[in-house]
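Session log. Operator J.P. requested a structure for one protein chain; no other inputs attached. Running the standard single-chain path with token output.
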Amino acid sequence: MRVWLMFMFMLVVGVPSVQSEQPQVEIVKMPAQLDTRYFDPERPPRDRPPLTGPEEAVSAGDFLSDASVSGQVLQIDATHAKGTINRIKVTLQLNITTWLPNNPRKRTVEHEEGHRQILEYYYRNAEVIARRSAEPYFGKTIDLSGADLRNALSAAIDKIAEEITNEYKRQMSVETTQDRYDAITEHSQKEIPVPDAVAQALKETYPEPAKPAVALVDHPAYLAWKNFAPGAKVVYAARYWNLAGPTNFMAGPITSRKAYQLRVINADGVRLWFSQAPTDRYGRPMPPNEWEETIAAKYDSTVDPLANQSRSAQLLTIFHQAGNLAMGVQPHTGQIEAGEDTIEVNGARIATHWESVTYEYDASMWPTFKNCRLVIKLWTSDAVPTGLVRKTEERTCPPGRDQLARVMVETYLQSFEGFTPVASK
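Structure written below.
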């Protein structure tokens, strides 16, 4: 089985007259997007990557890197100027598509799950790699010459954006680990537990660098399960809302379901059983992907990209998203609206705390979303494992564009087992 990778970049040229108030090098890391597609081995779809050797399935991992570079120009004379790079923004995305034959063998599904884990392991450190690739270019001075100095700056920035992307691609050399994983498992033919094979492949090809001793802190994801007993389970559903009128939305079919069940909890951490099931066009669940996840009770907060981010930045990536509407939004620096609300789930009334943030899109990077806005609203409760009760993402754009004027996606708590949420008063 081979993993197919794609690395992309987008160039946007800006020539501001004053220094931007945005961070010098800004890295926006979007949540990994997972998809599973099934195919008839006798009639495979044209867009499925080819299989080789004994392969029955394939995983495609697309590491997307959109580099936005801005420069400031000091003109010397009619044909000469000096340009200075004064802002770099890199938006990262990982899209994983697992291609499985209809009615796949359990061993095949488990093997592809190992490839997914390797991709996400590499993506865990993507923000550090992207920043390391971009920072050497910040403040760089470029000598420009020619009759059209703006075009000369554009060409220079084009080259820088490409170099940043190429360096990011070079350091995200996941294929070496994937090939080693296939060799260890003999393309799923060898009887070896997938977690052991993944760990061995990573150890041999992606060794962890030595780290100085640091003070560990409670892991938020561990705390979200700390007060629950084994067997507690939450099921989340994702769906689009379709515009049925100028102001009214109508719920569409469920696009996916995700479930977490607590297996073991102790002072060292928790073990969760995770299940993800895509649905067909009618909202009916398809065969799920399942695996076990382990969360340590303590962790080094300095390696967590969310640790030093504002709450508004965290809202863009916290919890699994139903959609991907947040690509291209600008950092939010204003006030976060908040309040209390009660949400009913299967007859149980759950007291929640909600937060709402409005984001504007970076029109220089995403001109198609100029004057559009994104509102993310999050409802949470300590009475629910993971803390999530509901999340909505709603994008509104001026009418008459190619994209929809309004679109909303939602992730919500569909059911729970093994615990009783605290009722609202």
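Operator note: Residues 3-205 form one domain.
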